[in-house]
Write a structure and sequence with these properties.
20 helices; seven-stranded mixed beta sheet; alpha/beta; two-stranded antiparallel ribbon; 572 residues
Length: 572
């Protein structure tokens, strides 16, 4: 190999080593390490550096410098996010950058960027590489390559191993980019962690950009459909409607549905008094909260030919009819989400201020450690609002969301580990089940408090959970499994509690509706039908109302109940 070839080879190797070291510096130590944390950086560094060998002599060092410095800059941003925000680059961070104006950007830099960042060794190390790289690329140094046959064979074997290791993860990663305008499928793949399996800053920024642009396009179309819709008429059949959305509620841990431990005595008491009507056959289409919210807020339903973006969100119809609409959430605040898939896929519709202002007259501004705090917020709002002719109040609880021990005050604990002595699970699993059932019991008190606030009103209240949860029942796990649903998984994660409560005044005023409710409690329902129930209760007529899709209507016709985007629940 002549002197020129030696220099070309050495510069390529310098670039490869710098890119590899930068990649390895960005390993997110909060995640469990696996082989891909090392194979992905090797493949990424090779793919970025290797093509530069074949550039012309004139531009080669400049191309290598641009590739290297840009990648080092990306790595610095990624490490900065990990050090100061506790997360690598995400769609939210990228979107915040896109939405920031010059003044906001300058204020951010003056506030969050200073000499103290040098105290973080990864950032300091990467800054040193930024300085060293151009010196190494533009000097005439040459490193004589070692042409040992064994060394070359070893390098080739290592490289082939890395490439083969990355083939399946890369295939899954690419699936994220093939779901054109289908935010629900993107969310489903995200919850299977497809975006995290190829763990380099380059992959993270590519996914963040894609997810942000996709969700923005989808959001713009939903806003257009929502802003341009209207109603034909409204009979105001139900003056006061409340929708309560629970979280991670395994129906089979509710004594209202036959659970052997008394987790819902207050609901059972109201059922015995004839004011609460449990639905026995309700199924949620997803075990992902953000997907469920989009489905139950949109007038789109599974089986419709058009995309979900062509349909409006139901609260706008109530506001068009003259209802005062409020939204209280112990998870989703306008200023930002506590956690969830929307933090991965980008801008979710409830986080958009323009859309939120069109859907709701009022939203709560703060979350609460326990759901009873949300009840107090709602109680104060109801008192300050005073009398209103027609109201729709939507309340989203944190319910039994993991971690269960954090979802109830321990002074309210009713059950102990000895209540599960007959269960053939280990002590830790019993402790988790105990916390879940205590959270469910606390949720019973929260729901009863909300019902008590409306006992003297002409009100109807619908409760349902977004999805279920695994709690060491048939499967030896807790939480949710983001995979193709099986029959056992569908039972615990997709069957959900749902009931309708009617005040005494409401029952006296609308005996026909009570009859409809009573006659429909065993009808099979997919919860994306919810808007049709709400429109029926309010007496709203528009182009979207369909009695065949309203589970309370005698004309109701059950449709295939597709869960997880592709599985027919009733055929499992």
């Amino acid at each position: 190999m002549d002197s020129h070839e030696t220099i070309v080879e050495s510069k390529y190797r310098i670039l490869f080593v710098v890119l590899l070291i930068a990649c390895l510096s960005c390993i997110d130590m909060t995640n469990r390490l696996n082989i891909h944390a090392f194979t992905a950086p090797i493949v990424t560094a090779l793919l970025l550096s290797w093509p530069t060998k074949y550039c012309s002599n004139t531009i080669r060092p400049f191309v290598q410098l641009v590739v290297g410095e840009l990648f080092l800059g990306l790595c610095i941003v990624d490490c900065y996010c990990q050090e100061f925000f506790g997360t690598p680059i995400t769609p939210q961070i990228l979107r915040s950058l896109f939405l920031s104006n010059t003044r906001e950007t300058c204020e951010f830099l003056s506030t969050f960027v200073g000499g103290y960042i040098l105290l973080h060794w990864r950032i300091t190390f990467l800054l040193i590489l930024v300085i060293i790289l151009p010196i190494c690329l533009f000097c005439r140094w040459k490193i004589s390559p070692i042409y040992s046959r064994k060394l070359k064979i070893t390098g080739i074997i290592i490289l082939l191993f890395c490439i083969l290791a990355e083939v399946p993860t890369t295939f899954r990663y690419v699936q994220l980019f093939l779901q054109k305008q289908n935010i629900e499928k993107i969310e489903g793949l995200i919850f299977r962690h497809y975006h995290e399996e190829v763990p380099t800053p380059l992959h993270r920024i590519a996914f963040a950009y894609y997810a942000s642009t996709q969700s923005s396009e989808i959001l713009d179309r939903i806003k257009l459909s929502t802003f341009t819709t209207d109603i034909d008429s409204c009979s105001y059949t139900s003056p006061h409607i409340v929708l309560i959305i629970g979280e991670s509620y395994n129906k089979h841990h509710s004594s209202l549905y036959g659970y052997h431990i008394p987790t819902t005595p207050l609901q059972q008491e109201r059922k015995n008094r004839g004011e609460l009507f449990p639905f026995s056959n309700a199924i949620t289409p997803w075990n992902i909260t953000s997907n469920v919210f989009l489905d139950i807020f949109s007038l789109w339903e599974s089986g419709n030919d058009e995309k979900i973006t062509a349909y409006p969100l139901f609260p706008i119809l109530f506001r068009r009819a003259g209802y005062t609409v409020s939204f209280f959430s112990n998870q989703y605040l306008l200023k930002g989400f506590l956690k969830g898939a929307t933090n991965q896929a980008g801008n979710f519709f409830l986080a958009d201020s323009e859309l939120s202002d069109s859907l709701f007259d009022y939203r709560n501004q703060r979350s609460s450690k326990y759901d009873m705090g949300i009840v107090e917020q709602f109680k104060n709002y109801k008192s300050e609002r005073g009398y209103a002719n027609y109201t729709l109040d939507i309340i989203h609880l944190i319910g039994q969301h993991f971690e269960y021990s954090m979802r109830y005050p321990h002074s309210k604990a009713t059950f102990s580990e000895k209540d599960y002595s007959e269960r053939t699970i280990d002590k830790e699993a019993k402790r988790i089940v105990m916390h879940y059932d205590n959270a469910t019991k606390y949720n019973d008190e929260v729901l009863d408090s909300l019902l008590s606030l409306h006992e003297n009103d002409n009100a109807v209240i619908i409760y349902l959970s977004d999805h279920g949860e695994e709690v060491y029942d048939e499967l030896p796990v807790h939480g949710r499994l983001f995979q193709t649903p099986t029959k056992t998984q569908a039972k615990n994660e997709f069957e959900v509690p749902m009931w309708i409560w009617c005040s005494r005044k409401y029952q006296d005023n609308y005996p026909d509706i009570i009859t409809c409710i009573h006659n429909s409690v065993n009808n099979p329902i997919l919860t994306d039908n919810l808007p049709q129930i709400l429109l029926f209760l309010a007496g709203i007529k528009c182009k979207w109302t369909d009695s065949k899709r309203n589970v309370l209507s005698p004309q109701y016709k059950s449709k295939p109940r597709i869960i997880g985007g592709r599985i027919d629940f009733d055929k499992l």
